[in-house]
Specification:
Elements (H helix, E strand, L loop, with lengths): L1 E5 L2 E3 H13 L2 E5 L1 H5 L12 H12 L14 E6 L9 E3 L6 H12 L14
Parallel strand pairs: 1-3, 3-5
Antiparallel strand pairs: 2-4
Length: 125
């Protein structure tokens, strides 16, 4: 089986789901620039205490009502991470968004039992 996962890992819930997906799949594909590199969500990594700062900015500073951090929000990780920093990733499909033709190529190759050759097919952004 093949699992495609998009998006960077920013909170404990996402990290747990990623580990569960890895445990249950034969082939895990990191799909899109955020999943491959962390991309825009990882910009908060430049600050110390970035998880607290991000929550305060979103729920306190930029809110007109109920200026408090909700308790229902999953606990943020201190740093946003690309998938491969947490689990083994078998294939990477970068892009923002990833090209439909590259996604099709990778899946077609895998379904045919072949290893996709990404040379010249990968591009970021």
């Amino acid at each position: 089986d093949v699992t495609l996962i998009e998006g960077a890992v920013a909170n404990e819930e996402q990290q747990s789901l990623l580990k569960e997906a890895r445990a249950k799949t034969k082939i895990l594909i990191s799909l899109g620039d955020c999943a491959v590199t962390g991309n825009v969500p990882a910009l908060r990594n430049a600050w110390n205490d970035s998880a607290r700062l991000a929550l305060e900015r979103a729920y306190v500073e930029n809110s007109d009502v109920n200026k408090q951090i909700p308790t229902e929000v999953p606990t943020l990780l201190e740093k946003v991470r690309p998938l491969h920093e947490i689990v083994k990733v078998d294939y990477f499909i970068p892009g923002c968004p990833p090209s439909a033709s590259v996604i099709n190529y990778v899946l077609t190759e895998l379904l045919a039992g072949r290893t996709p050759n990404m040379e010249g097919r990968s591009k970021y952004g």
